[in-house]
Each structure stands twice: as C-alpha cells, then as structure tokens.
Amino acid sequence: MFTINPFATLSAVIPPAVIQGYVLFMVALVAAGTLFDIIHKASAKYFFENMRRPKGRGAKPVGGGEKAAIAVQTLVVDVLASGEFCNTRRRIAHLLGMYGFVLYVAATVVMVFNPAAGAIWAQLWWLGGLMVCVGGYWFWFFIRVDVAAEGQSPLRVMRADLFVLSMLASATLGLAWAATGGGAGVLFGLYILATTVLFAGVPWSKFAHMFFKPAAAFEKRLSEADGSHENLPTLSRDDPAQQDRHSMELLKNAPMDMGLGIKREAPRHY
C-alpha cells in the first residue's frame, strides 16, 4: 500500500490527461487567487512603497552584502525553521504541517505526471500526508488559542479556518482513498472536492500568507539592521530618544525586566 502509486491505478478509470489537467488547473487557481489577494489587500503595494521610502530613515545604511546575509538569515530562521513561533509545541506542529504539505503536494505532482515514478514517491506522499494530519490535528484540537486558552469548542469553525480544515480534509481523504485501493469511488470524489476547496479558496483563506510572511520577516530584520525598527520603540531604554518614543509615561523609566507577567502561568482561566 505504501509503495503503490494510487494515481497510476486511477488511470484505468480516468484518463491520465484529465488528472494532469486538473493539477494544472489547481496551479492556475493558486496563482490567480494569490494575485487577487495581493491586489485586494494591497500587500505588494505596501511592501514596494515601504522599500521606496527615504533611505535616510534608518540610523545607518545597509549594504548589499549585509542585505544578502539578512535574506539568508530570513530564509533559514524565519522560513525553513519557523523561528517566529515562541511556543515550542506550535512551532513543531507548524513545521510538521508545512514540510508535510510540501512533500504531499510535490509527490502528488510527480506521481500524476509520471505514473512510473519509483516507490519512493509513494512513500513520500504517505509521509507528507501523515505529517499534515499529525501537525494539523494536534494544532486544531490542542494548540489553537481559542481552544486551549479561551475554552471554545474545537468544533467551532470560522472563515479563517478554511485553509487548515481544507488541507486536513484533503490529506485525510487522500490517505483514506489510497488505503482503500484507490479508484473513482465516493472517497475519491470527496478527496477531489476537499482539494479543490483548498486551492480554489486562496482569496478567502490564509493560503497566500505563506508568500507574504517571508517578505514581512525580511523587512523586519532589515529595519533592525538599519536602526529604524519600523518606527517602534526598541528594547533599550537607556537612550533618552528611545524613552521619549514611549507613549506611556509609566514605561519611559520602567526596568526592562518586569517579571513574567501574564506568562507566569498557562492561560486557562475560562
């Protein structure tokens, strides 16, 4: 079961060209949905305008070599290692889902366009799908803030959950379809439906955020390097100029370390 290409067995019922056309159509939907999201939310406009702002706003200029180093650091820490997550459990769940989804999609494309692909691709497809399920269900039932901290029901669904739920549905139904022998039955229809919702729902889900987050992380690191800090107060209060940037008088002379505060205990007060 773990070494058989389920899309190769499907070709006995549905012509391979139809499945390949469906995959290309999903790619086109993602591209179109991302472009629509960029235009609708003006994300690209924001980043380009921010990059075109006067170069003197920072305390020091940042050269091309330093920018390249910042780009590499952003790629390694923020993108590949999900360094923005402080919560270890959420970071692990996110990495499982992210790398699982990459394996799942890449193996699907290879097996659809090359039915004779080796067994390793079927195994990677299974591994990716299982990683998505483990990371996704762990996040959904145990890590989500509104469930873990606010006491909301894990069955409560909002529009913002479209990406996670459709991704979980696609991976779960895909694995169930392959485990039952493939074919063009009910499970396959549900699998195609969930996958279509996943890729066609880009304008209404968080799918496109994977393209925006690296740009935002790079911009943040660049603002720290040039000293502008996105026009926000820095962590240092020994500089009078930094003290004056605080809007609250109470914080201007406050010590940097004021204890754990709300992190003293887990937020389970519901």
Write the layout of secondary structure elements.
Elements: H1 6-10, H2 16-41, H3 43-51, H4 64-80, H5 88-113, H6 119-143, H7 145-148, H8 162-179, H9 186-200, H10 209-226, H11 240-244, H12 249-252
Helix pairs in contact: 4-10, 5-6, 6-8, 8-9
Structural class: mainly alpha
From the N-terminal CA to the C-terminal CA, the straight-line distance is: 45 Å
Task: Compute the CA-based radius of gyration.
Answer: 23 Å
> How many individual helices?
12
What overall form do the CA principal axes indicate? elongated
Quantity of strands, as a count:
0
Low-confidence stretches: none
The SSE string, one letter per element, is HHHHHHHHHHHH
User: What number is the mean pLDDT?
Assistant: 83
Count of all domains:
1
Q: How much of the sequence is in beta strands?
A: under 5%
| Largest sheet features | none
- Helix coverage percent of residues? 55-70%
Structural descriptors:
270 residues, mainly alpha, 12 helices
Descriptive overview:
The protein has 270 residues and is mainly alpha-helical. It has one domain. The chain has helices at residues 6-10, 16-41, 43-51, 64-80, 88-113, 119-143, 145-148, 162-179, 186-200, 209-226, 240-244, 249-252. The protein is elongated.
Concise summary:
The chain is an all-alpha fold and 270 residues long. 64% of the residues lie in helices and 0% in strands.
